[in-house]
Design goal:
The chain is α/β, with parallel strands linked by helices and 325 residues long. The chain folds into 2 domains: 154 residues, D-Maltodextrin-Binding Protein, domain 2; 137 residues, Periplasmic binding protein-like II (D-Maltodextrin-Binding Protein, domain 2, 3-Layer(aba) Sandwich), CATH 3.40.190.10. Helix content is 39%, strand content 21%. The protein has 12 helices and 10 strands. Strands 1, 2, 3, 4, 5, 6, 7, 8, 9 and 10 form a 10-stranded mixed sheet that branches. Strand 5, helix 6 and strand 6 form a beta-alpha-beta unit. The radius of gyration is 23 Å and the shape is globular.
């Protein structure tokens, strides 16, 4: 009987032990961070930011998630299915115009720029965007700003081209790289912060060119939608690019859900902005995440800043100066 009682006591204690949740896991706050293609700048930045937070903020675990980028990230945040994410300027306005409720999305900061890279093989007959007619063009994946803004809207407003004028290929950055390399597409658009690792790899594999746009084309584009800004990709940014390339870009937004507590957002922003050396080592575009750039073009965004971000900017003494930085 004594042995039986001892066994039952041990079994009871064991069941109580395994039935209890692990205290650390129970207290852990898991957050998702929407990025983009693993071949693009969004992913490098999101993964880098996540790593910085995970290293410095006990009880919080941020996971960078590969997505179709801007539109998908913002849509998932609006539905409460993602906590943070990156998106191109103009994304929320486009969603709102489609009837999507963006009231649960808040702005943390405006950061880097995504620069339009129209890529062709060096021996391609395509010399300008006007030469896209009748060609096979990689315009970006569904749900991305590369498709909706940098390709579809930009081509119409700057050059009067619609997707009926050529054969659009709705493919990811990595598929665009493969298509150019294998000569299964004639040109492709990768809109991301310079330098783009995938383009660097492609330029090391085969000779490429980047299409430079004319001042007239840019002026029409900017007049059609002033959120587009001019950008110069410097000679030497990629192997074989021996001259500066004139193109267009959009500022990028760091967004979050209204469900994120003020103190949590404040701590995350403080980690990213106060640790310059670690942040800047993530990617060249990470250097653009400064308080000076945080408000660039923010008035065009149909939402407000998150209270946690505001708290940080007030602490730094820049909130009241945000229109004059």
């Amino acid at each position: 009987m004594k042995k039986i009682m001892t066994f039952l006591l041990i079994a009871c204690c064991f069941s109580l032990f395994i039935g209890q949740p692990k205290t650390a896991d129970a207290r852990m706050k898991f957050l998702s961070f929407g990025t983009g293609s693993p071949a693009g700048t969004y992913y490098f930045l999101g993964a880098g930011f996540a790593s910085m937070v995970n290293k410095r903020l006990p009880g919080v675990r941020v996971t960078a998630e590969s997505t179709a980028a801007s539109l998908e990230n913002a849509t998932l945040i609006s539905r409460g299915k993602m906590d943070m994410g990156l998106a191109a300027m103009g994304t929320l306005a486009k969603l709102k115009a489609r009837g999507v409720d963006v009231s649960k999305i808040r702005l943390i900061a405006v950061g880097h720029t995504s620069d339009t890279h129209w890529i062709v093989r060096k021996d391609s007959a395509i010399q300008s965007i006007s030469d896209f007619k009748g060609k096979r063009i990689g315009v970006g994946p569904a749900g991305s700003a590369t498709l909706s803004l940098f390709s579809k809207e930009a081509l119409v407003k700057g050059w009067g081209l619609t997707f009926d004028d050529f054969s659009p290929k709705y493919i990811s950055f990595s598929e665009i790289i493969t298509g150019i390399r294998d000569n299964t597409i004639d040109a492709g658009n990768i809109s991301a912060g310079t330098p783009v690792a995938a383009i660097m790899e492609l330029a090391n594999d085969i000779p490429i060119r980047l299409i430079s746009i004319s001042p007239e084309g840019y002026n029409r584009l900017h007049k059609g939608n002033p959120i587009f800004q001019p950008k110069t990709i410097k000679a030497g940014a990629y192997k074989g690019i021996t001259e500066d390339v004139n193109t267009y870009c959009l500022p990028q937004m760091w967004l979050c859900s209204t469900s994120m507590p003020e103190e949590l957002v404040y701590k995350i922003v403080k980690i990213i902005y106060d640790n310059d050396e670690d942040r800047n080592a993530i990617h060249p575009m990470a250097k653009m995440y400064t308080v000076k750039n945080a408000f660039r073009g923010y008035k065009a965004v149909p939402t407000s800043f998150h209270p946690g971000a505001i708290k940080y900017y007030q602490e730094k003494g820049v909130w009241d100066k945000r229109d004059n930085l």
